[in-house]
Amino acid sequence: MKIQIKRLDHVQLAIPIGGEERAREFYGGILGLAEVEKPAELKKNGGLWYEVAGIGLHLGAEEPQARSKRHPAFKVENLEAVRAYLKENGAEIKEEVQIEGIERFSFYDWFGNRIEFFEQRHI
Q1: Does residue 122 register a pLDDT over 80?
Q2: Does some domain include residue 3?
């Protein structure tokens, strides 16, 4: 059998239990993402859902975990302006090894989740 994957639906990151309002400040306020109402059946679990370029970004409430290499990556425009904006708003920037034709960096949200932003460069 060959599994027919149609598209990526969502990525889930973690926030601490009770951290929804602070997450709204970061994801809704600083990143400007549109919050999506969670299904009634899942609201009791806490957390938030957002929409990012047609893909769901789910923030699940759980006990804090150690940092790792896990991360979603998003293609953006004006990468240097985005980097400066995130620094101004308290995001911890992590410089990454550059790949030919791609400029990139990662940052940590206020909860320790790693997220990569990149911009393709014309060679």
Answers
A1: no
A2: no
